[in-house]
C-alpha cells in the first residue's frame, strides 16, 4: 500500500478528495438537548416570584435545567432573557388586558379586566401579583433599561385602554365629561394596587371586594 506523506512539496490541495475528508477536524458542538419554550416558562416563574434584581444567573440555570453557556447561546444575557420572558408574559398570562378591550361596552370591558386580573393575581398555581410590577419594583441604575422596557409596555397598554374609552365616549357609552386618558390611568392604578395586595397575601375574596368598591366609583 502506498503511503502518502505531507512535506514541503505536498499540500492539502494536492490530496485526493477522500483523504481531505479523512483529515478534516471532527464537528464541534452538540445539538441543543432542552426545550427552549419550556426553559423560558421556567425562567418566567423565577423572575415573577423573585423579581429581576432578586434573581441570579444560578437561580435561572438551576430552574431552567441548563448551564450558563446554553443560556447565553439561546437567550442572550440576563437582561435579554428577561425581555423574552416579558414577551411571553404579555402574550400569555396578561393577554386578558388587551382581550378585554374587545368587549361590546365599556362597562363589560372594565368588569372583565378586573375579573381576569383577580383570577390571575390570586391563582394558587402561579406567583402572586403581576410580574410586570413585582419584577421591577426595586430598580437600580444598573437595571434602568429593564425598568424602562417594562414601563414602555405599560404605557402602550394604557394608551390602548384610553383609545377604547375614547371610542366609548364617541359612541355614547361614557359621559362626554369623562377624560379617557384619566380613566385608563385610574384603572391601571387600581390594577397595580390589586397586584401588590395579592403579593402581600390578600385572598381572592378580598380582591373581589376591593374590585366591588372600585366599580362603584366608575362613571357608568
UniProtKB/TrEMBL annotation:
PROSITE patterns named in the record: HTH_TETR_2
Domain HTH tetR-type: start-end pairs: 33-93
Q: Which residues bind DNA?
A: 56-75
Organism's domain of life?
Bacteria
InterPro entries found in the cross-reference section: Homeodomain-like_sf, HTH_TetR, Tet_transcr_reg_TetR-rel_C_sf, TetR_C
Which SUPFAM superfamilies does the annotation name? Homeodomain-like (SSF46689), Tetracyclin repressor-like, C-terminal domain (SSF48498)
Query: Which Gene Ontology terms cover its molecular function?
Result: DNA binding
UniProt keywords (A-Z) are: DNA-binding, Transcription, Transcription regulation
Full protein name: TetR family transcriptional regulator
